[in-house]
Amino acid sequence: MKTLGKKIRLLRHQKGWSQEDVAKRLDISIPAFSKIETGITDINLSRLEQIADLFEMSVVQLLTFNDAEGELKYANELETVNKKLMDRETEVIDLQKKVIELFEELRQTKATA
Predict the structure, then answer these.
(1) Positive or negative CA dihedral for 113, 111, 95, 90?
(2) 8 Å CB contact between 17 and 51
(3) pLDDT, tens only, 59-79
(4) How far is 81 from 87, CA to CA, in rounded Å?
(5) Which InterPro entries is this protein grouped with (predicted)?
(6) Are residues 54 and 22 in contact, defined by beta-carbon separation less than 8 angstroms?
(7) Which pLDDT value is given to residue 18?
(8) Which of 16, 3, 7 is nearest to 51 (CA)?
């Protein structure tokens, strides 16, 4: 059941919903929904149907949902964010060099004055 919980969590993240959002829609407590996602609680058929309906899929689709597609999406997003981070780090290094150059110019100006 842990795999099902991971699938539900992935679907929830894809929708941009919090655990609270889903718990309210299912009319259960947040801890109860958290236990479903973590696999602590086994899901009965009626709850499974309710969750499948919430994500606009059949029970079979929910049970066979391939989370590799979702992981690929997150991997692509992670790659994009990492590239942006590296670009920002390069900008910071360039700015640090500029600060050092300006400091050296200021120091030389004071030394010759």
Answers:
(1) positive
(2) no
(3) 988 888 775 555 666 777 888
(4) 10
(5) Cro/C1-type_HTH, Lambda_DNA-bd_dom_sf
(6) yes
(7) 94
(8) 7
Categorise residue 98: left if φ over 0, alpha if ψ from -120 to 50, beta otherwise.
Answer: alpha
Q: How far is the C-alpha of 35 from the C-alpha of 38, rounded, in Å?
A: 5
Q: Which residues are within 8 A (CB) of 63 and not within 5 positions of it... i.e. 6 or more apart?
A: 4, 48
In the chain, the largest separation of any two C-alpha atoms, in whole Å, equals: 85
- Non-local (6+) Cβ contacts of 38 within 8 A are 2, 5
- Three-state DSSP state, 86: helix
Count the residues in the chain. 113
Q: Is the pTM above the cut of 0.70? A: no
Neighbours of 33 (CB within 10 A): 25
